UniProtKB/TrEMBL annotation:
Domain named RNA polymerase sigma factor 70 region 4 type: residues: 137-173
Gene3D superfamilies: 1.10.1740.10, Winged helix-like DNA-binding domain superfamily/Winged helix DNA-binding domain
Alphabetical list of Pfam families matching this protein: Sigma70_r2, Sigma70_r4_2
Protein name: RNA polymerase sigma factor
SUPFAM superfamilies tied to this protein: Sigma2 domain of RNA polymerase sigma factors (SSF88946), Sigma3 and sigma4 domains of RNA polymerase sigma factors (SSF88659)
Sequence ranges assigned to domain RNA polymerase sigma-70 region in this UniProt record: 26-93
Domain of life: Bacteria
Keyword annotations: Sigma factor, Transcription, Transcription regulation
Length: 183
């Protein structure tokens, strides 16, 4: 998600409390947020749920955007967290209903290689987060959001070397979780 200067200006105005700017901002970013959430979640309805959650988080937390980094960088973090949270929630609901209802959606691992790979990667990231939570955010920002290392360092307020080290270690851990078929 790379936005023009108008979007960045809207974000700054919204962060300062301008409700009109916030409404314009949310309308403008929605298609990009949905597209980005779709990178995480293989099912369109799930991506839409994550998109709505991310937009709600932006509306609630725009006052925290300080303008030190680009709004697009800040938004990457919000969308990644919302998408991962939606995935965890869907997984939890599915497990709770497993004995009560037949599975309504086909297992994406059986219907699409790409969708199945995304689910496997989300599972691997969830596993990594439970074991080494400090590694996940840098990995998501680099490999999913495709931010530059310097942008990640700025967003996470970490030295560049620490960011590179975390990404390297996170990739190694995820590869181990995924096994031979993903290397």
């Amino acid at each position: 998600m790379a936005f023009d200067e108008r979007t960045e200006e809207l974000a700054l105005k919204a962060a300062q409390g301008d409700q009109g700017a916030l409404e314009d901002l949310l309308r403008k970013i929605e298609p990009d947020v949905l597209r980005h959430a779709s990178r995480f979640l293989p099912n369109r309805q799930d991506a839409e749920e994550a998109c709505q959650d991310a937009l709600l988080q932006v509306a609630r937390n725009i006052h925290r955007f300080e303008g030190r980094s680009r709004f697009s960088t800040w938004l990457h973090v919000v969308v990644a967290n919302s998408s991962r949270s939606t995935y965890r929630s869907l997984k939890r609901r599915s497990m709770e209903q497993a004995g009560e209802l037949p599975q309504q959606r086909p297992d994406p691992r059986r219907t699409s290689v790409i969708a199945g790979s995304r689910v496997d990667i989300l599972d691997a990231m969830e596993d990594l987060e439970s074991r080494k939570p400090d590694l996940v955010q840098a990995l998501v920002l680099r490999d999913v959001s495709q931010l530059e290392y310097a942008e990640i360092a700025e967003q996470l307020k970490l030295p560049l070397g620490t960011v590179k080290s975390r990404i390297h270690e996170a990739r190694k851990q995820v590869r181990q979780t995924l096994g031979e078929s993903y290397t």
